[in-house]
Design brief:
By secondary structure, the protein is an all-alpha fold. The chain is built from 4 helices and no strands. The model has no long low-confidence stretch (mean pLDDT 80).
């Protein structure tokens, strides 16, 4: 099971099929929780896909600037890439409040 650093290493090495088991399980659990809270299965699946795509985009942006020689919290480019991905979300998108 790759950690986020391992995920970045795999991406930079050219891997195109990176299975993040914990993340994938969390998406599945989140979709089931939404259903239990009354959301239709179709809508829960849509929300899961939106979240997955957003995370994948952010992960790729961060992987492009990942530098394994820098310690945790010392790569300002990774922080900026994460903030940039969050700013690109449309209003009303899960994780970005509508104004």
């Amino acid at each position: 099971m790759p950690t986020i650093g391992c995920t970045f290493d795999l991406y930079q090495a050219g891997a195109n099929e990176i299975v993040r088991e914990t993340f994938d399980a969390a998406i599945r659990a989140g979709k089931r929780a939404l259903e239990r809270l009354g959301m239709s299965r179709d809508n829960a699946e849509k929300v899961g896909k939106i979240f997955y795509r957003h995370d994948r985009h952010g992960m790729i942006e961060q992987a492009r600037v990942y530098d394994p020689t820098l310690g945790p919290f010392k790569n300002e480019q990774i922080d900026e890439a994460g903030r940039g991905a969050a700013r690109k979300r449309p209003r009303g998108h899960p994780g970005r409040p509508a104004r």
